[in-house]
Automatic annotation (TrEMBL):
Domain RCC1-like residues, every copy: 148-500
Organism: Gossypium mustelinum (Cotton)
The protein's name in its UniProt record: RCC1-like domain-containing protein
Keyword annotations: Repeat
Intervals holding RCC repeats: 164-215, 216-269, 270-322, 344-397, 398-449, 450-516, 517-552
Taxonomic lineage of the native organism: Eukaryota, Viridiplantae, Streptophyta, Embryophyta, Tracheophyta
Source domain of life: Eukaryota
InterPro entries attached to this UniProt entry: RCC1-like_dom, RCC1/BLIP-II, Reg_chr_condens, Ub_ligase/GEF_domain
Pfam families: RCC1_2, WD40_RLD
PROSITE patterns the record matches: RCC1_2, RCC1_3
């Protein structure tokens, strides 16, 4: 029943600040006599309709960080959640829309946005704050933005805590550790010059590191180049401490990816920029090969919002996320929810060797091109990964697709054949995957339960399957089909992230991050990149070993 018919004025609680129980108890709050209220025809004493206190309902929805799909379900099943709530900043917004807006405001990348920028984001996402929230959450899920993360770079490693503090260790010949020196370091060391700056995403390339702050700024250090510096003509200048990239100061960046001979960045609004392709190739824009100014990708992605980018050897993958339809006034449950879903798709651009662009051929693409195969598979991509010569995708339903050069079994199809279009990994049909990571002919898949599967090149023991004592058995056996990494089951904790080296010039190592923030490493460690000290001329670790650092 409506609050106006109960005879009692509505008590407004919108924008209640978060307080401890003690503070609330100590506050002076006026008391009101208990009255019998009626709720939807039920006359049980003590009950009251939700409409009597909508601000309390809004506060609960916001504090619980409900998923936008759940907010949509509330609107679909109850008129209270979809009618105008008469609250600022927009009196026409429903309780569910206001809750989605308040949850958006908790995101670090949303807080600095002006009102105009907020409205532009809302329009780009289909005119709904719930859809805008889904867009932001999709980006966070792909690359652990604003969460703890570990990056297994080529010879050096980066670890970011949940509060944005950055540690680095490993090879430092170009100053890529950011400590102001060129000295190699196997112990994780905090980058002191970044104190007061919260980092939300990191990327590591050969001799180079890039970090993204919650203010959308990008910091870089190492070789003064944007790709495989030591094998190109650029990179003569070395930077040993984090430096702000001035050419990106007018772009609010949320993700960066370092490929071979190029760098890509993703803006808060879902726009992709690339620069410094190197040599004589171009990537999505018509500029000089040595242009270090960021240029937006032209073609199909100009007006399509992107939530994730992934860079491999001379190619780039972009995960696009578009609303499939506007919210309509038909609130029948199924019809309403169907109009709420995003349509996800993958675009590729760059070098097509091995079929790694996924278009059924091995030709290069100068501009982003939609990979059509996912429509034929009836598959909604959720996460993309670009290895050196192959690529992978995790779908919304947990299926895994791989394509590209199949050397050493890195595609997981039981052979070493190439696939020029995405193909479902049938060996993982009983596994619901949530994440995938790719490297130089290696692939890792993370399941919803926290189990880890790997396949491909076993060099440097980076697949994690060798549980025998060191010096026994074949440490470097290739794996043609997905196998459970049993050594990670011994940590007795759910794994939430896998990162592995994605470079053709370095021996690979692998990180496994657990739910509580513990970080384990295995594979090549000759440069200190594992974060643990190797003894007796060792160059690698077969089994996962915990690094002395707590990322939570």
């Amino acid at each position: 029943m409506d609050a106006t018919t109960s005879g009692t004025p509505t008590i407004q609680y919108h924008n209640i600040p978060h307080q401890s129980g003690t503070a609330i108890a100590a506050a002076s709050v006026p008391t009101f006599p208990r009255q019998v209220r009626h709720c939807f025809g039920d006359s049980s004493p003590g009950e009251f309709p939700l409409a009597a206190n909508p601000s309390i309902v809004l506060h609960v929805l916001t504090a619980c960080n409900l998923d936008p799909r759940d907010l949509a379900k509330l609107e679909a099943t109850c008129s209270f959640f979809r009618r105008p709530a008469n609250f600022t900043p927009d009196y026409e917004l429903s309780i569910s829309e206001l809750a989605a807006l308040d949850i958006c405001k908790k995101r670090a990348i949303f807080k600095p946005m002006t009102d105009e920028e907020c409205q532009n984001l809302k329009r780009k996402c289909g005119g709904s704050w719930k859809l805008a929230l889904r867009f932001l959450l999709a980006g966070e899920a792909c690359c652990r933005r604003e969460k703890s993360q570990a990056i297994a770079g080529p010879g050096h490693s980066i670890a970011v805590t949940s509060t944005g503090v950055v540690y680095s260790f490993g090879s430092n010949t170009s100053g890529q550790l950011g400590h102001g020196t060129m000295e190699e370091e196997w112990r994780p060391q905090q980058i002191r010059s970044l104190q007061g700056i919260r980092i939300i995403q990191a990327a590591a390339g050969a001799g180079r590191t890039m970090l993204v702050s919650d203010a959308g700024r990008v910091y870089a250090f190492g070789k003064d180049s944007f790709g495989e510096a030591e094998f190109g003509v650029q990179g003569t200048k070395l930077v040993a401490t984090p430096q702000l990239i001035e050419s990106l100061k007018d772009i609010f960046v949320v993700q960066t990816a370092i490929g071979n001979f190029f760098t890509a960045v993703l803006s808060r609004e879902g726009r992709v920029y690339t620069f410094s392709w190197g040599k004589d190739r171009k990537l999505g824009h018509q500029t000089e090969p040595n242009d270090v100014e960021p240029q937006p990708l032209l073609g199909a992605l100009e007006d399509v919002p992107v939530v994730q980018i992934a860079a491999g050897y001379c190619y780039l993958l972009c995960l696009a996320c578009q609303p499939s339809g506007m919210l309509v006034s038909n609130y029948r449950f199924i019809g309403f929810l169907k109009s709420f879903f995003f349509s996800r798709s993958v675009y590729s651009v760059g070098c097509g060797l091995g079929g790694k662009l996924g278009h059924g051929s091995r030709t290069d693409e100068k501009h982003p091109r939609l990979i059509e195969q996912y429509r034929l598979l009836n598959l909604q991509p959720m996460v993309v990964a670009a290895g050196a010569w192959h690529a992978a995708v995790v779908a919304w339903d947990g299926r895994v697709c791989t394509w590209g050069w199949g050397r050493y079994g890195c595609l997981g199809h039981g052979n070493e054949e190439c696939e020029s279009v995405p193909k479902v990994v049938e060996a993982l049909s009983k596994v619901k995957a949530v994440h995938v990571a790719t490297g130089d002919y290696t692939t890792f898949v993370l399941s919803e339960d926290g189990d880890v599967y790997s396949f491909g090149c076993g060099e440097s023991a980076s697949l994690g399957h060798n549980t025998a004592a060191e010096g026994q058995g074949n440490r470097h056996a290739n794996v043609l089909s997905p196998e459970l990494v049993k050594s990670l089951k011994q940590v007795k904790e759910k794994v939430v992230q896998i990162s592995l080296t994605n470079s053709i010039h370095w021996n690979a190592h692998t990180f496994a991050l657990t739910e509580s923030g513990k970080l384990y490493a295995f594979g090549a460690g000759d440069k200190g990149q594992l974060g643990v000290k190797l003894m007796n001329n060792q160059t690698e670790r077969i089994n996962p070993e915990r690094i002395d650092i707590d990322l939570e």
